[in-house]
Design a protein that fits this description.
The structure is a single chain. The protein is an alpha+beta fold. Among the domains are: 132 residues, Rossmann fold (3-Layer(aba) Sandwich); 58 residues, SH3 type barrels (Roll), CATH 2.30.30. It contains seven helices and 19 strands. A hairpin with a 2-residue loop joins β14 and β15. GO terms for molecular function: ATP binding; tRNA binding; tRNA-uridine 2-sulfurtransferase activity. It is found in: Cytoplasm. This is tRNA-specific 2-thiouridylase MnmA.
């Protein structure tokens, strides 16, 4: 129970369905003064109190479990190390993978619980070869992307009561009707452990600053920076380039090279990616029948991006994905989730990309 409206209604529906429900809020920070800033952040003191009030209203036991050390090691430190390596991590994916459906689920099973129930918008269905994870009925709120890291064993111990709900407005209306005080509470967004939204400043404190060069694709120096970690692939603003492009068009970050502390920029068309691959891949349920042979799929590289038709194959220890049309602004460290229709097949953390545009352009 995060303290938001989705998990509150999910808990209410689980109670109504006849399950023996216990509310658990995760304490992910040991900073006692951690407070919510508007819609930013989650898992704060206010959120814990909101969750407790909902549990009291539902008449279920409520506990706060301290996972702050695990969260620091598995999510925050991973976030910092990925940026140090010049990659663009997704901390929500790591949190789902290593905290909510690993650490939390492991403890729950040890204590005799059967499943972890959350307010995620996704659907579990029995397929011919086992349990399948599918998109929710509401595409605008669908959260199957961030659940793409879950394995078959984890899915077997999950409940997602909101998956079939057509809209978030209906969830809020249900919370209001049930007398839950969080009915109109704003959704949280941004990175929960950077509640003020200043990711660049937060990283500067953790990683430090070091002057470096900004170069174009030919290697010519066109600007300077205070730390490569502050840049992400696809970034346009804040580059402060001293040399304009020959064609006068804006330039974008194409690559971050942490070893040399160099940022590479170029034209927007150079962001087009023809292939992406990752060695850290998993299947959400049963693997494709012949993953070492090319299979058709859709690929999604951001939580709110549109899926794109593609072909994928497991080759040389990597999940290799080739979209039918080039993708733009894809960075190592992001997560690529592959689908078959509405079904989540699996995911990989992107290790490398292949540009669709030769470097001479």
């Amino acid at each position: 129970m995060s303290g938001g409206v989705d998990s509150a209604v999910a808990a209410a529906r689980a109670v109504e369905a006849g399950h023996e429900v216990v509310g658990v809020h995760l304490a992910l920070s040991r900073a006692g003064g951690t407070l919510r800033t508007g819609s930013r952040g989650c898992c704060t003191i206010e959120d814990a109190m909101d969750a407790r009030r909902v549990a009291d209203r539902l008449g279920i036991p409520f506990y706060v479990w301290d996972f702050s050390e695990r969260f620091r090691d598995d999510v925050i430190e991973d976030f910092v190390s990925e940026y140090r390596a010049g990659r663009t991590p997704n901390p929500c994916m790591r949190c789902n993978e290593r905290i909510k459906f690993a650490a939390l689920l492991e403890r729950a099973l040890e204590l005799g619980f059967d499943a972890v129930c959350t307010g995620h918008y996704a659907i579990l269905r029995d397929g011919e070869n086992g349990l399948e994870l599918h998109r929710s009925s509401e595409e605008a709120k669908d959260q199957s992307y961030v659940l793409g890291v879950l394995t078959a064993d984890q899915l077997a111990h999950c409940l997602f009561p909101l998956g079939e709900t057509p809209s978030k407005a209906l969830v809020r209306a249900e919370a209001e009707a049930r007398g839950l005080a969080v009915a109109s509470k704003p959704d949280s967004y941004d990175i929960c452990f950077i509640p003020d939204g200043d990711t660049r400043g937060w990283l500067a404190e953790k990683v430090g600053t070091a002057p470096g060069e900004i170069v174009d694709r030919s290697g010519a120096v066109v600007g300077s920076h205070d730390g490569a970690h502050a840049f992400t692939v696809g970034q346009r603003k804040g580059l402060r380039l001293g040399v304009p492009a020959p064609d006068g068009k804006p330039r974008f970050v194409l690559e971050v090279r942490p070893v040399s502390n160099t940022v590479v920029v170029g034209p927007r068309e150079a962001l087009a990616i023809a292939e992406l691959a990752g060695a850290r891949f998993t299947w959400a349920g049963t693997a494709p029948d012949a993953p070492h042979e090319e299979f058709a799929c859709d690929v999604q590289v951001r939580a709110h991006a549109d899926p794109v038709p593609a072909v994928a194959v497991v080759r040389d220890g990597e999940l290799v994905i080739r979209p039918d049309e080039p993708l733009h602004g894809v960075a190592p460290g992001q997560t690529a989730v592959v689908y078959a229709g509405t079904r989540v097949l699996g995911q990989c953390t992107i290790d490398r990309t292949v540009s669709a545009v030769p470097a001479a352009v």
